[in-house]
């Protein structure tokens, strides 16, 4: 008897099974990875081969359904439990939608991006966009985010000095104790981290297993975060090289036109050029170690110190600089900003500020073709010789411009400019919400993956919102909520965008993940620094890292997470790297997980399938990553008790009778990479997973072919 609580889809599945129990719907599978779409990112006007998997000798026909047209597929490969069907389609220059129709006797079902559909119509189709491409190196690349001022001080001679200038109501402060913690108003406090420090620590970054460094902004700026850029053409000499120093810090005045030491440091062309040369040297050294470099671009707004505005009158009397738009109505940069009162010059402070902040003047591209072209030049400059950065991360990218239409035009042109200069560079955006329109239109390659990574895993493992502003008891250990969020948000990505999305647990805008494990709600100004370290659970952090290194995308470590840094949201999340006080066990754990991630290609570009289990699944996440050669099983147990997990693993291509090898096991107090094997019987695995722990298991077919046609 069918229970009334079952939904319509579940009733239909039960009806199908009752009609023909031999129909194996669990074996049906297709996605948009390279095993099932070839080429995965097709050019315009080309042929594409699609594949679909069924149980062996279990169906009569498989069709590709395109605009109500049925294209028959042919059985091309039989391997293990499965048959693989192939069919070819011709794509043009626009989005191409399709799904599959499977016929077995008098049963006919559909299969789309959300999986099996027995409703008779497939509302969630696969979507190919010809002409889109992501850099191959970025798929599954391990990234490492560096907030430069807090990473390592390699050159004390370039440190910002006490009272060097005045910003946001107070003088700058040189922090002399590297191990001291941020203040609640931290933007003008400087620890002295710089590019020389990063160069000094490149061996550490390489040994960790990092493929890509992502830098928070590096350009001239008065803040430690540098999202208020002063000069897009130059690296800040406080991060770079000060060749010619001198001048005075402020003593009695708060006017920065008298901050002659600061002015000399940041306007002197010898300092600026030497700093650019140091960046070029850093990128070269990183590339020699096999590490790529992504830089942060802030193009929606600049800073009030910016040479085009010059509200602080830093550039007014310096040789080689023209009058700023704040100073004079005749400035060549007046069109770069939107002024609300044209009768206020000199010293016109009526310019448009991003979210009303007068320290963050919004750039006025629509009214300034000169500004537009300048930024296109900047887009090219830093990914070209001699700098050779490998891409851009775009700050608040959806906010740029005054209309959505202009925003899309700008980013389309920006990405084209970047790719023209460096065809292998990536363009990824900071974005909250649906990014499909930007990705589908070829404007961004991918995004910082908040919706389909950071938020769902934080809610599941900690019950905490990413700023530590809320605890949700209904979301912690809730697999249904987790899978619902992941499935909904991942559908917004192309496959290429999904495989290179920046998957972070923490970053400079949100609380440290380790702090979230304590379930303490609040921020630095209310609770203090000590509370961010109270009651944290390193075992939950290990679960998160295990998940991060096995989930589709580019796992991105925020500097210091691997060493045990805690911290509430900005600015407490910007604590200095704890050199000399590292949690070496946690570093070793990161190294082990990164090695597993990189040694097993299924984690870089493979398919994913959730694994259903028998019994209560509260607190359990289980999924398989697989390709045609290998499969890995990942199980997280976020309960405080051991759980015996039993589930079907044959759906990932693992033989029904075999031994499967353990790659890593983590538990409440430790982890091990000691090899151990488990038996698979009748396609099922039974394994004990420790409380607050996880396990990764791996099966290798031994074939290791890159050519699907070799199976024929």
CATH topology of the largest domain: TIM Barrel
Oligomer: single chain
Backbone structural class: alpha+beta
Task: Please write the CATH class name of the largest domain.
Answer: Alpha Beta
Please report which band the strand proportion falls in: under 5%, 5-15%, 15-25%, 25-35%, 35-45% or over 45%.
15-25%
Give the number of DSSP strands. 33
Helix content bin: 10-25%
Looking at the structure, what is the overall shape? globular
- Structural domains: how many: 5
CATH homology superfamily name of the largest domain? Glycosidases
How far the N terminus sits from the C terminus, by CA atoms, comes to 44 Å
Radius of gyration: 27 Å
Low-confidence segments, ≥5 residues, pLDDT <50?
1-5, 708-712
Largest sheet: 9 strands, antiparallel
Question: Do you know the CATH architecture of the largest domain?
Answer: Alpha-Beta Barrel
Describe the protein in words.
By secondary structure, the protein is α+β, with helices and mostly antiparallel strands. Strands 25, 26, 27, 28, 29, 30, 31, 32 and 33 form a nine-stranded antiparallel β-sheet that branches. Strands 22-21-20-19-16-11-24-23 form an eight-stranded parallel β-sheet. Strand 5 and strand 6 (82-91) form a beta hairpin. Helix 14 runs parallel beside helix 15.
The gist of it:
With 712 residues, the chain is α+β, with helices and mostly antiparallel strands. Helix content is 22%, strand content 23%.
Features:
alpha+beta, 8-stranded parallel beta sheet, 712 residues, 5 domains, 16 helices, globular, TIM Barrel
């Amino acid at each position: 008897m069918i229970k009334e609580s079952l939904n319509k889809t579940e009733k239909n599945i039960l009806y199908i099974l009752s009609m023909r129990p031999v129909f194996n719907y669990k074996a049906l599978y297709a996605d948009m990875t390279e095993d099932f779409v070839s080429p995965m990112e097709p050019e315009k006007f080309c042929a594409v081969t699609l594949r679909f998997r069924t149980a062996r000798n279990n169906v009569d026909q498989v069709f590709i359904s395109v605009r109500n047209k049925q294209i028959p597929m042919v059985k091309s490969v039989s391997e293990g439990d499965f048959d693989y069907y192939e069919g070819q389609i011709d794509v043009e220059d626009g989005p191409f939608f399709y799904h599959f129709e499977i016929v077995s006797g008098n049963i006919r079902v559909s299969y789309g991006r959300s999986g099996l559909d027995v409703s008779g119509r497939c509302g969630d189709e696969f979507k190919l966009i010809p002409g889109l491409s992501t850099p191959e190196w970025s798929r599954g690349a391990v990234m490492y985010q560096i907030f430069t001022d807090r990473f390592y001080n390699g050159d004390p001679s370039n440190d910002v000095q006490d009272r060097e200038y005045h910003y946001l109501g107070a003088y700058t402060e040189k922090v002399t104790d590297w191990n001291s913690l941020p203040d609640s108003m931290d933007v003008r406090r400087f620890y002295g981290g710089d590019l020389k420090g990063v160069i000094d620590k490149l061996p550490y970054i390489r040994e960790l297993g990092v493929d890509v460094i992502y830098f928070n902004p590096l350009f001239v700026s008065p803040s430690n975060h540098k999202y208020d850029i002063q000069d897009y053409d130059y690296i800040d000499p406080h991060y770079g090289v000060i060749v010619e120093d001198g001048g005075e810090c402020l003593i009695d005045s708060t006017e920065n036109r008298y901050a002659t030491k600061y002015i000399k440091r940041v306007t002197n062309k010898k300092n600026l050029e030497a700093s650019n040369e140091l960046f070029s040297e850093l990128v070269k050294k990183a590339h020699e170690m096999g590490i790529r470099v992504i830089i942060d671009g802030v193009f929606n707004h600049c800073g009030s110190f910016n040479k085009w505005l010059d509200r602080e009158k830093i550039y007014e009397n310096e040789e080689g600089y023209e009058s700023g738009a704040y100073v004079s109505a005749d400035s060549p940069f007046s069109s770069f900003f939107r002024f609300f009162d044209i009768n206020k010059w000199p010293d016109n402070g009526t310019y448009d500020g991003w979210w009303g902040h007068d320290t963050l003047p919004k750039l006025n591209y629509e009214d300034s073709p000169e500004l537009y072209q300048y930024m296109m030049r900047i887009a090219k400059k830093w990914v070209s010789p001699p700098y050779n950065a490998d891409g851009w991360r775009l700050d608040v990218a959806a906010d740029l411009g005054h209309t959505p239409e202009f925003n899309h035009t700008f980013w389309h042109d920006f990405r084209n400019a970047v790719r023209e200069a460096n065809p292998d560079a990536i363009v990824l955006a900071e974005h909250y919400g649906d990014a499909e329109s930007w990705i589908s239109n070829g404007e961004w390659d991918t995004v910082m993956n908040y919706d389909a990574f950071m938020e769902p895993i934080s809610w599941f493992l900690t019950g905490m919102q990413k700023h530590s502003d809320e605890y949700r008891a209904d979301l912690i250990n809730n697999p249904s909520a987790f899978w619902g969020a992941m499935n909904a948000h991942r559908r917004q990505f192309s496959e290429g965008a999904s495989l290179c999305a920046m998957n972070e647990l923490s970053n400079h805008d949100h609380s440290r993940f380790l702090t979230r494990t304590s379930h303490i709600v609040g921020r630095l100004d209310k609770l203090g620094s000590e509370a961010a370290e109270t009651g944290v659970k390193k075992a939950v952090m290990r679960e998160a890292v295990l998940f991060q290194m096995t989930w589709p995308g580019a796992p991105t470590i925020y500097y210091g997470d691997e060493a045990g840094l805690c911290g509430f949201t900005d600015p407490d999340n910007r604590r200095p790297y704890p050199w000399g006080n590292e949690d070496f066990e946690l570093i070793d754990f990161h190294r082990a997980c990164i090695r597993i991630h990189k040694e097993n290609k299924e984690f870089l570009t493979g398919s994913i399938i959730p694994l259903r289990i028998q019994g209560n699944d509260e607190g359990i996440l289980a999924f398989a990553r697989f390709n045609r050669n290998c499969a890995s099983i990942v199980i997280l147990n976020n309960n405080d008790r051991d759980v015996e997990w039993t589930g079907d693993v044959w759906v990932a291509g693992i033989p029904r009778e075999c031994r499967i090898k353990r790659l890593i096991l983590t538990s409440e107090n430790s982890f091990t990479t000691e090899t151990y094997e488990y038996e698979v019987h009748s396609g099922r695995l039974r394994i004990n997973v420790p409380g607050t722990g996880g396990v990764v298991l791996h099966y290798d077919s031994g074939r290791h072919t890159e050519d699907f046609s070799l199976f024929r």
